[in-house]
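SAMPLE LOG
Freezer: B-3
Tube label: C17
Construct: single chain, 264 aa
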Amino acid sequence: MSITFDNASNGTTIGSGTNISWSETVGSITNGILIVLAVATVTISGVTLNSSVNLLQFGSTLMITGGQQGSLWYLLNPPSGLNTMKISTGSTGGIAGAGVSFANVAQSGTFGTLATNFGTSTTPSNIVATTSLSQVVIDCIFDQSSSSEAATTGQTIRANNGWDLDIGSIVATGSNMTLGWTVSTSSNWGEMSVALNPFVPASPLYAPLVVPGAVVGPSIWQGPPGLKYPSKMGPVIRRANGIFRGGGGLMGKNILRRKWWQVL
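STRUCTURE (predicted):
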């Protein structure tokens, strides 16, 4: 299944405080993920959904020149509908946040390797590793100016909260990707990029052959005398009493190998 974009919120910001809250709508998606980019001038203590569900932090906090810090938080299988997001800090400071949601994302082994970078310029960039064309890369940027941001070609900006915080996404190339932004005013910036892995349905299991009147045990298959099956593959083992064992292993193993047996 292909990863698909669901929804996004530009979030909110506060110049000085200990928490911020905003509304985040999630669609009726399966194997979904909600990702929040949290940015603050002080330590972020946590991100919650509807005051009771704690999001998990992915990777480490990125500290940039000037003391601003950013971190990624996520929730697998988020509830659909209108939700309230909240970012809390350990002390008073500037806080900003925004969120995005995607469908058909792996619920285990969800992420690739987080790549981070920071600097001072008008051209932020970051190199992220991808391994498959079915991945989708999340690329986040935050900076300390009041400038506008534009993403590199091919990347779609999903969220921009107006406090120099953006979340973009782009389909992976299956190799290392250089993702960049341009900002109108040179400033301190930080960039965080990571690939999302797609949900892969489990392979179907073949049920063993069940014959009416037969009993399948751990090591023998007992069939009624006189029951006949044509031999399609493998050896045919015959015993007059209708009880026989598989020459290559347990009967369950042989049946799963789709061998046919014959009782005479």
